[in-house]
Amino acid sequence: MHETDLRIFISKKLNYFRLKKNVSAREMSLAIGQSDNYINSIENKRVTPSIQMLYIICEYLDVPVNEFLNETKTKDYYLKEINKKLVSLESEQLENILAMLKSF
Hints:
The chain has 7 helices and no strands. The protein has about 100 residues and is mostly helical. It folds into 2 domains: about 70 residues, 434 Repressor (Amino-terminal Domain) (Orthogonal Bundle), CATH 1.10.260; about 30 residues.
């Protein structure tokens, strides 16, 4: 992967997982001990984090490094995401989803 492609890839992944955690770039930067614009610099493709910093970022985001770096989403990823959504649904909603799944 070319350095420019790597910056784009890391930028998109970081932005995705940061928004998923619902934290601002500034808040995250400060929480991991960096200057207030560090995460913004990565997301704007000006900086590429070191391997050590990538581990710190992933730890903060509660995302395994291999999941962060994975270019494709695995079956386990989709199952985890679906399960997160299902646990907050009401019984009637779950019943409807089950009926739909049985049709496949």
